[in-house]
């Protein structure tokens, strides 16, 4: 309990610091991390484990890879196909989000954002469409649509659910398309809201200091590289992005692929050593690396188990299935804003199945609601590594970040509580 109190206090400190915005975000996050070390909540090794996290390594590598690509003249050619002004902002948002939902069936949100990042930079410079209007929506849609179809990432989903149901002795079983049918209305609601209105809730300009070096060094007319190196840079960038998309079918790790691509940019002379290090926005790296161990500390503090006990007491002898559906949606949906979505899901699933079996109702709608709730990493930058990255790259304030995710969160809540039971009756 003592560790839980300390972790909660640090979490409150970081949230207040992000809202106050007097200190740089990385400084607030690192200060919170060191408080956990000084109080013995985390060891020094655990605290700095965030710097070896794949998300952090991927962030560093994509900065270098992108810097190499920005030295080519390709973006100058691409600008011919971009809108002339921000008046076509909605069309651009819709295009990026449609591409995101397709790619999210095969690769993760961080990889998708990394692939789009150079285009976001050129859009900001040439068309006046701020990256802040696109970074969060891309990550939001990637999480909302990730692995919902029974192929690609989602191929194993029904089998995992059935394995858990079998362990508890339930005769209920998921069919191949059940997860897709159950969560599609929520995913569609998030997509439509974000395309039509949600992106407008985001600031037109970044609200905290962000990396502007990329914008200043973009050469739209080329000339920074020799023709040979220009072709080589395009080949390295194109091959890296392509392997990120198809690599999952071959068991290749996206982080490894991007690191190799970044190294090749330097080895082949496209970037000098100083250019590679200058391309990295270190405040983002430190902020992400600090927030990840704090999330892990929250996860390991026993917060989930303690809250689970409170939920069981709260439910008591409740037999209303819609109350059960609401509780097992909101519990993981709120928990996942501060700890791993996988951890939130694993904590809730056994409780959900046991509760539904004791009541003699169908566990499938409750499991669908809790699983989707655990995946709603959208209200805080601590909710998932991808959201931490989006928070930094988009230059958002904590208030703007929360506001942009609140309405999609509530839409998903309404669908999970009332629509899923219509599709899969209790």
Helix/strand layout:
Elements: H1 2-20, H2 25-38, H3 44-47, H4 54-70, H5 74-78, H6 89-103, H7 109-126, H8 135-145, H9 157-167, H10 178-196, H11 213-217, H12 227-246, H13 254-267, H14 273-279, H15 282-300, H16 303-315, H17 321-335, H18 341-359, H19 363-374, H20 385-394, H21 398-423
Describe the structure.
The chain is mostly helical and 426 residues long. The protein has helices at residues 2-20, 25-38, 44-47, 54-70, 74-78, 89-103, 109-126, 135-145, 157-167, 178-196, 213-217, 227-246, 254-267, 273-279, 282-300, 303-315, 321-335, 341-359, 363-374, 385-394, 398-423. α8 runs antiparallel to α10 (178-196) and α12 (227-246) runs antiparallel to α13 (254-267). The longest helix has 26 residues, at 398-423. The model is unreliable at 211-220 (pLDDT under 50).
Give me some keywords for this one.
426 residues, mainly alpha
What sequence of helices (H) and strands (E) makes up the elements? HHHHHHHHHHHHHHHHHHHHH
Number of helices: 21
Backbone structural class:
mainly alpha
Apparent shape: globular
Number of strands: 0
Largest pleated sheet: none
What is the helix fraction of residues, given as a range? 55-70%
Strand content: under 5%
Taking the alpha carbons of the first and last residues, their distance comes to 37 Å
Q: What value does the Rg take, in angstroms?
A: 22 Å
Task: Summarize model confidence as the mean pLDDT.
Answer: 81
- Low-pLDDT windows of residues: 211-220
Summed up:
The protein is mainly α. 69% of the residues lie in helices and 0% in strands.
């Amino acid at each position: 309990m003592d560790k839980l109190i300390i972790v909660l206090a640090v979490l409150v400190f970081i949230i207040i610091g992000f809202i106050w915005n007097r200190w740089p975000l990385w400084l607030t996050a690192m200060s919170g991390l060191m408080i956990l070390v000084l109080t013995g909540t985390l060891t020094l090794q655990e605290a700095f484990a965030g710097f070896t996290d794949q998300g952090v390594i991927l962030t560093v590598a994509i900065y270098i890879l992108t810097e190499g690509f920005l030295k080519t003249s390709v973006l100058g050619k691409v600008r011919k196909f971009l809108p002339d002004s921000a008046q076509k902002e909605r069309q651009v948002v819709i295009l990026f989000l449609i591409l995101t939902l397709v790619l999210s069936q095969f690769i993760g949100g961080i990889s998708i954002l990394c692939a789009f990042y150079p285009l976001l930079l050129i859009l900001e410079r040439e068309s006046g469409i701020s990256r802040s209007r696109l970074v969060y929506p891309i990550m939001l849609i990637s999480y909302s649509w990730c692995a919902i179809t029974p192929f690609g990432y989602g191929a194993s989903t029904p089998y995992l659910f059935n394995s858990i149901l079998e362990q508890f002795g339930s005769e209920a079983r998921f069919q191949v398309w059940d997860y897709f049918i159950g969560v599609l209305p929520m995913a569609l609601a998030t997509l439509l809201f974000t395309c039509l209105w949600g992106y407008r809730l985001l600031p037109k300009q970044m609200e905290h200091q962000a990396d502007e070096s990329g914008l200043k060094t973009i050469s739209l007319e080329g000339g920074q590289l020799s023709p040979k190196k220009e072709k080589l840079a395009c080949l390295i960038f194109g091959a890296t992005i392509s392997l990120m998309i198809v690599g999952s079918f071959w068991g290749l790790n996206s982080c490894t692929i991007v690191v190799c691509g970044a190294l090749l940019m330097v080895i082949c002379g496209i970037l000098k050593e100083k250019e590679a290090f200058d391309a990295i926005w270190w405040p983002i790296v430190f902020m992400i690396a600090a927030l990840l161990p704090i999330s892990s500390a929250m996860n390991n503090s026993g917060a989930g188990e303690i809250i689970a006990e409170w939920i069981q007491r709260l439910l008591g002898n409740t037999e209303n299935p819609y109350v059960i559906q609401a509780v097992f949606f909101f519990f993981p949906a709120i928990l996942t804003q501060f700890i791993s979505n996988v951890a939130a899901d694993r904590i809730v699933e056994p409780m959900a199945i046991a509760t539904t079996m004791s009541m003699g109702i169908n566990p499938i709608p409750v499991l669908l609601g809790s699983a989707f709730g655990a995946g709603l990493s959208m209200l805080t930058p601590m909710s998932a590594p991808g959201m931490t990255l989006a928070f930094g790259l988009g230059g958002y304030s904590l208030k703007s970040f929360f506001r942009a995710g609140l309405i999609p969160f509530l839409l998903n809540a309404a669908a999970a509580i009332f629509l899923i039971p219509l599709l899969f009756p209790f």
